[in-house]
Amino acid sequence: MADDFEFADKGNKIIYETEAKGFNPGLIVLLVVGGLLLTFLVGNYVLYLYAQKTLPPRKNKPVSKKKMKRERLKQGVSAPGE
């Protein structure tokens, strides 16, 4: 076996380490979690594109009279009635 490694222990015992047969469990978990995350992100992007096409644009909140007055004063335009 060309892939075997020999290590001499203190008691002159030879330990053979061979490659594990089958899949690494850590790799399987990583692939499953990565696949789920990728599916989630792609799904969100597809839903976002669908919503952009089908939903009407959002309405702006009405600006209060107090805020309009303050903005006009900042710009130097006097508010009507003053």
From TrEMBL:
InterPro entries: S1FA_DNA-bd (IPR006779). One of its GO terms (cellular component) is nucleus. The chain crosses the membrane at residues 27-51. Residues 57-72 have a biased composition (Basic residues). Keywords: DNA-binding, Membrane, Nucleus, Repressor, Transcription, Transcription regulation, Transmembrane, Transmembrane helix. One of its GO terms (molecular function) is DNA binding. GO terms for biological process: regulation of DNA-templated transcription. The keyword Transport does not apply. Residues 57-82 are annotated as: Disordered. It is found in: Nucleus. DNA-binding protein that specifically recognizes a negative element (S1F) within the RPS1 promoter. Belongs to the S1FA transcription factor family. This is DNA-binding protein S1FA. It comes from Hibiscus trionum.
